[in-house]
Specification:
By secondary structure, the chain is α/β, with parallel strands linked by helices. 48% of the residues lie in helices and 13% in strands. A 7-stranded parallel β-sheet has the order 3-2-1-4-5-6-7, with helices on both faces. Helix 3 runs parallel beside helix 4 and helix 4 packs parallel to helix 5. The chain binds nicotinamide-adenine-dinucleotide.
C-alpha cells in the first residue's frame, strides 16, 4: 500500500514510534528513524521488513536540529510523504512544584517540535498533492489528569495544531489527524508504574492493575501494534477525507 513512499517518525527508537514505523514499513514505506538510545536494533528491525531505513539523531527540543533532520530526509529519500510527530516525554509533579526546566522541555519536545516538523514537511507534500501528518497526541489531549500540567497542556496544543493544519490543507491531498492513546506499556509508562509500586508498596503487576483501574475500563493496555494499524488507516485511501480528527484508542477512558 505504501511502496515508494517515505515516512519520518520522530521518537521511533522505542515504544509507540517504533511500533508505527514497523507498521508503515510492513506496507512498503521507507523509514527515517529518530530518537535516542539504541539505534542499531530498531534500524535492523525495519531493514528486515525489506525497506530502506535511515536514522537522524535530531534533538526534538532544538528547531535547528529538526531543520537538519527534515533536510536529511529529503536529501536521502527525495521527500517525506508521511510525517509522524511522536517524540514525547513526561514529568509528574503538582503545578507549584513543577520544575520550570521540565515544563520548557515538555512543551518543546511534545508540542513545538510538531509545529517545526509540520511547517517543514508541508511544502513538498502539497507539491506532490499527497501527504499524511499524524500527530501522536494522547488522551491527555482531550482530558486532564492531576500532576501532568505540562504534558496535558502540550497534548491539548497538539490536538489544536492538528485541527488547524487539517483546515489549512482541507482542499489538498494532505491530511492531518491526531491519535490519542490511553495507557500503552512503553518505557514512558513503565516509569509511572515503578513510581506507583514504590509509593503504594505494590508489586509490578499490581501497580499496572492499579494504574489501569484508575482510568481505563477495559483494564488493558493499548499496544504499539494497534496504534500502528490506526496510523495505516489514516494513510489508506479510506482516510482521504478524515481531517482534523483526534481519534482515541483508550479502552473507554474518555467514554466515562
Ligand atoms: P518512549 O519513551 O518509549 O518513546 C519516546 C521516544 O521519543 C523515544 O524514541 C525517545 O528516544 C524519543 N525522544 C525523547 N526525547 C527526545 C528528544 N528530545 N528528541 C528526539 N527524540 C526524543 O515513549 P512512548 O510511550 O512510546 O511515547 C511516544 C509518544 O506517545 C509520546 O508523544 C507520548 O506522549 C505518547 N503517548 C504515550 C502513551 C503511553 O501510555 N505510553 C499514551 C499516550 C500518548
Amino acid at each position: 500500500m505504501l511502496q515508494g513512499k517515505t515516512a519520518l517518525v520522530t521518537g521511533s527508537t522505542s515504544g509507540i514510534g517504533l511500533g508505527i514505523a514497523k507498521a508503515l514499513a510492513k506496507q512498503g514505506a521507507n523509514i527515517v528513524l529518530n530518537g535516542f538510545g539504541d539505534v542499531e536494533g530498531p534500524k535492523a528491525e525495519i531493514a528486515a521488513l525489506g525497506v530502506k531505513v535511515a536514522y537522524h539523531g535530531a534533538d526534538m527540543s532544538q528547531a535547528h536540529e529538526i531543520e537538519a533532520m527534515m533536510k536529511f530526509a529529503a536529501d536521502t529519500f527525495g521527500r517525506v510523504d508521511i510525517l509522524v510527530n511522536n517524540a514525547g516525554i513526561q514529568h509528574v509533579a503538582k503545578v507549584e512544584d513543577f520544575p520550570v526546566e521540565r515544563w520548557d522541555a515538555i512543551i518543546a519536545i511534545n508540542l513545538t517540535s510538531a509545529f517545526h516538523a509540520t511547517r517543514l514537511a508541508l511544502p513538498a507534500m502539497k507539491a506532490a498533492k499527497w501527504g499524511r501528518i499524524i500527530n501522536v497526541a494522547s488522551i491527555h489531549g482531550l482530558v486532564g489528569s492531576a500532576e501532568k500540567s505540562a504534558y496535558v497542556a502540550a497534548k491539548h496544543g497538539v490536538v489544536g495544531l492538528t485541527k488547524v493544519t487539517a483546515l489549512e490543507n482541507a482542499t489538498t491531498g494532505v491530511t492531518c489527524n491526531a491519535i490519542c492513546p490511553g495507557w500503552v506499556l512503553t518505557p514512558l509508562v513503565q516509569k509511572q508504574v515503578d513510581a506507583k509500586a514504590v509509593a503504594m508498596g505494590l508489586s509490578n503487576e499490581d501497580a499496572k492493575k492499579q494504574l489501569l483501574r484508575e482510568k481505563e475500563p477495559s483494564m488493558q493496555f493499548t499496544t504499539p501494534e494497534e496504534l500502528g494499524e490506526l496510523a495505516l488507516f489514516f494513510c489508506s485511501a479510506a482516510g482521504n477525507n478524515v481531517r482534523g480528527a483526534a481519534w482515541n484508542m483508550d479502552g473507554g477512558w474518555t467514554a466515562q
